[in-house]
Design goal:
Elements: E1 2-5, H1 6-11, H2 13-21, E2 26-30, E3 33-38, H3 43-60, H4 66-73, H5 77-86, H6 96-108
Parallel strand pairs: 1-2
Antiparallel strand pairs: 2-3
Helix pairs in contact: 3-4, 4-5
Amino acid sequence: MNVIGIKQLQMNVRQLSHNFEHNEYTLITRKGKPIGIALPFSDELMQSGLKAWLAMRAFEKGDLSLGQLADSLGKTKADTLQVLAQFKIPLADYDLQEDLATVEKLLAL
């Protein structure tokens, strides 16, 4: 594993490209603390879990529907709900205070 500081990376992007060409991953740090990992792209990497992680993140951000997530994971919607629960990813993202304010406005009509 290679370690590179964010400032060093900004000045020497070729180092990261070199690491990718040699199928090496790189830990990126800021002030000595890890902030990310750069990995060379491969089908093996995608099949070993990254694809599922990316799909769940896309669902969490609202970019994928539950059905699309289930398809990408190769699971039923019911099984996908269990996976989401396991990773504590909510099905819906809402602001309770905003909803209560809306209810109050409706009741005032």
